[in-house]
Design a protein that fits this description.
Layout: H1 4-31, H2 37-66
Length: 80
Amino acid sequence: MDDPCDCRTARIRLAKLESDIAYFQTRLQLIGELNSTHRLAQHKVFKLLLKSAARELFNARRRKSRGGKEDVLLSPEAMF
């Protein structure tokens, strides 16, 4: 990733993933009590989306750190 355009694209991708994670966490908090099947389904879907985005972010950061740049690595489970 020597091309400045590639670095910018990677930073934007990381920012989008971080934004997605924040959105999913907020949606999970807003669902409230799981007292209906609709809320339970929403909770399951947003939990899966959160885990998927966190895993993707973790892998992207791992690739970035392997490229010679230092970055703090958190496991996907530690992100939420």
